[in-house]
Design a protein that fits this description.
The chain is mainly β and about 120 residues long. The chain has one helix and eight strands; from the N terminus they run αββββββββ. Strand 6 and strand 7 form a beta hairpin. The N and C termini lie far apart (about 40 Å).
């Protein structure tokens, strides 16, 4: 259920923080399927989702990316960081994708950009 949720309800319900979901259109580039998110932003479709059939170019889809995988894929995604939630063992970066869509990135506490010691007030 976590890796290949059957529907959007399960994708958004299982996991904390929940899976990021984004509307996209399938395009092909050099024979590879990509999810076009608009504004020159796209993510490569790897065929590991719930529906593993080859996507047809022009098809409207909703893609899901787990917060811990958002920075590990092929493609580009522009975002503005809105908030950082420190949880001790990890942090959640809440981002705005520019069209009102929010996305959350989950990083380990010692992830990139994390200070060694947290400043005290």
């Amino acid at each position: 259920m976590y890796d290949r949720p059957h529907n959007l309800f399960v994708a958004r319900f299982i996991g904390s923080p929940p899976m990021n979901t984004m509307a996209a259109t399938v395009i092909t580039d050099a024979g590879e399927p990509w999810a076009d998110l608009g504004a020159a932003e796209r993510l490569r479709l790897d065929g590991t989702g719930a529906h593993q059939s080859t996507p047809v170019a022009g098809t409207k889809v909703v893609i899901g990316v787990r917060p811990e995988n958002l920075l590990r894929g092929d493609g580009t995604l522009q975002a503005s960081m809105v908030a950082v939630e420190w949880l001790g063992h990890e942090r959640h970066l809440v981002c705005d994708l520019g069209d009102g869509t929010a996305a959350t990135v989950r990083e380990p506490a010692e992830g990139p950009g994390r200070p060694r010691a947290r400043p005290s007030a």
